[in-house]
Amino acid sequence: MGYSVGQVSGFAGITVRTLHHYDRTGLLSPGERSPAGYRLYSDADLARLQQILFYRELGFPLDEIATILADPQANALDHLRARHRLLTEQIATLHRLVEVAERAMEVQQTGVELTPEERFEVFGEVTFDLTYATQAHLKWQHSAGHQRSMARAAAHSKEDWAKIMAESADWRGRLIAAFEAGEPADGERATDLAEDHRQHLIRWFTPCPTDMHGRIADEFAADPRAFALIVPPGEQRPGLAPYLRTAVHANAVRRPSPTPPDTPATATPPPAAPAAP
């Protein structure tokens, strides 16, 4: 029993035009005729079509498929091995492109509009985990407070970021000095440092009442990626993050300023950049 071009097109999932092209090029020509003289595809033709579609799915060009099928003794395995190598290389290239695209999206989500060279020049050793920044962005993207913080971060110039980082280095040095001197975390010196940090957030990123500041400090103590926003790993000390958290909560008792009803709370530091004065 033979099959018409329309029937083959229907159950093979390819167009009549494609079958006609295969016929014209000699890749697949119907081998039977109907009583009325119409050309029909035999079972052998369908088996050949299945091979053609298999090789096409792997990306073989039609002329190479014709070469493979033209010689029944040809070693198709060699062709398949070569195609496998090529596909593996293409997959690796696509993975790299995906990583580049994801990194570009993450950079955009941090809100810092600087070139890579400017980012290195400004931030130096203080870096932020882009995965963490992206997770924070996705978590808080609908928060008005987060959107306001991102907008302000994006508006900062290179000069602004240089000021932010200079303030950050000075504050970080004072925090570490207080910690190493054994100053109590709930004492005046430590709570003053906590207040300096809160005012920095207000000045550069977002309104930050003390209860919100407490949630940010909790995040610093719970997630090393968050704490790395303000103290690079090379400068961290064991217990420094909990020390800062205690100081921030003590400062909230000392200088209470609850979140106004119209200020959406956030549990994470502004994910745009290192946020320390």
From TrEMBL:
Domain of life of the source: Bacteria
GO molecular function: DNA binding; DNA-binding transcription factor activity
SUPFAM superfamilies: Antibiotic binding domain of TipA-like multidrug resistance regulators (SSF89082), Putative DNA-binding domain (SSF46955)
UniProt KW ATP-binding keyword: no
PROSITE patterns: HTH_MERR_1, HTH_MERR_2
Residue ranges of every copy of the HTH merR-type domain listed in the record: 1-71
UniProt cross-references to SMART domains, sorted A to Z: HTH_MERR
Record's keyword terms, sorted: Activator, DNA-binding, Transcription, Transcription regulation
Biased composition (Pro residues): 257-277
Protein name as catalogued: Transcriptional regulator
UniProt organism field: Streptomyces lydicus
